[in-house]
From TrEMBL:
The chain crosses the membrane at residues 6-33, 40-59, 71-92, 113-132, 144-165. Gene3D superfamilies: 1.20.120.1630. InterPro entries: UstE-like (IPR010721). Residues 258-277 are annotated as: Disordered. Keywords: Membrane, Transmembrane, Transmembrane helix. Pfam families: DUF1295. One of its GO terms (cellular component) is membrane. This is DUF1295 domain-containing protein.
C-alpha cells in the first residue's frame, strides 16, 4: 500500500467525523426543542452512516475505484435511509423511550448535557469508528474481486432479514389480538432478533465490499467487530431481552428459538431447558 493516498484519507477521516457530529448535534437540538424526547436519536443512527458515506463519496472523487466507491455509497445509504425511515414511522406520536427515561433519571448533573455526552457524542464517535471500512475502501484502486460479490450477498441477506423482520413485527403488533404476546412467527421463529442479525450481516457485507486488500481488512476489521459486539452484547440483543424477559411466554419462546443466528426452532423445548444462545 505504498501508493495509497494517505493524505487524502486523512482529510476524509476529518470530514466524516464532522459529518457524523453534525447529524448527531442537529438531532440533539431537535430532541431538546421537542421537550427532551431523546428517542429521536435512534433515527440519526442510520442517517449518520448515510452522511458519512455521501461525504466519503464526494471527498474521494478522483481517487480509488469508481465502482467500489459507488457501491459503498449506494449500499450504505440504502441501508441507512431505510432504517431511519422505519424508526421514524415506528416511533411517530409516541413518548420517550423507556431506556432513555431510566438513563436520564439517574443522570448526574444536568440531564440534557448528560444525554449529549453519553448518547449523542458517543453515537457520533461510534458512527465514525464503524464506518472506517467505507472510508478506507473508497480510496482503494480496482479491480473488484470475488470478495465484493460475497460482500454484496451478505449485505442483501442482512437487508432482507432486517426489512422483512420489521414488516412482520409491524403486522403482528397491528393486530389487537396480539397485544401483550410474544412475536414468534416468520423470521422471528428462526431467531429472536432478525433485525439485529440483519444489521450484523449488512455490516460484515459492507466490510467485505470495502476491504479490497488484506492490509485494509486488517486495519478496519475492528469496525464490524465493534458493531457485532454492540448488537449481541451491548445495546442490541442484551438490552432488548432484558425487557422481553418480563413478558409472559418469553421463557418458552427463548427455549425453542435461536438467540441470534437463524436456526430451525427446537422442538419440544421447555422453559427449564434455558434460552437458546
Amino acid at each position: 500500500m505504498t501508493d495509497y493516498p494517505w493524505g487524502a484519507l486523512g482529510l476524509n477521516l476529518a470530514l466524516s467525523a464532522a459529518a457524523a457530529l453534525l447529524v448527531l448535534l442537529a438531532t440533539f437540538a431537535v430532541a431538546v426543542v421537542r421537550g427532551g424526547r431523546h428517542r429521536t436519536v435512534d433515527i440519526a443512527w442510520g442517517l449518520g452512516f448515510a452522511a458519512v458515506a455521501l461525504t466519503t463519496f464526494a471527498a474521494s472523487a478522483g481517487e480509488g475505484d469508481t465502482a467500489r466507491r459507488t457501491l459503498i455509497a449506494v449500499l450504505t445509504v440504502v441501508w441507512g435511509v431505510r432504517l431511519a425511515g422505519h424508526v421514524t414511522w415506528r416511533s411517530w406520536g409516541k413518548g420517550e423511550d423507556p431506556r432513555y427515561e431510566r438513563m436520564l433519571a439517574k443522570a448526574p448533573g444536568h440531564p440534557q448535557l448528560y444525554a449529549l455526552r453519553m448518547v449523542y457524542l458517543l453515537q457520533a464517535a461510534l458512527v465514525w469508528l464503524i464506518s472506517l471500512p467505507l472510508q478506507f475502501g473508497a480510496y482503494l484502486p480496482g479491480p473488484l474481486g470475488w470478495v465484493v460479490v460475497l460482500g454484496i450477498a451478505c449485505w442483501a441477506v442482512g437487508l432482507f432479514f432486517e426489512a422483512l423482520g420489521d414488516w412482520q413485527m409491524h403486522r403482528f403488533k397491528s393486530d389487537p389480538a396480539n397485544r401483550g404476546k410474544i412475536m414468534d412467527r416468520g423470521l422471528w421463529s428462526l431467531t429472536r432478533h432478525p433485525n439485529y442479525f440483519g444489521d450484523f450481516m449488512v455490516w460484515w457485507g459492507l466490510f467485505l465490499v470495502a476491504a479490497g486488500t488484506w492490509q485494509v481488512a486488517a486495519i478496519t476489521v475492528v469496525s464490524p467487530l465493534v458493531m457485532s459486539f454492540l448488537l449481541i452484547f451491548g445495546s442490541g440483543k442484551r438490552l432488548t431481552e432484558k425487557t422481553m424477559s418480563q413478558r409472559d411466554g418469553f421463557d418458552r419462546y427463548a427455549a425453542r428459538t435461536s438467540g441470534f443466528f437463524p436456526l430451525p426452532p427446537r422442538r419440544n423445548a421447555r422453559p427449564e431447558d434455558g434460552p437458546r444462545p
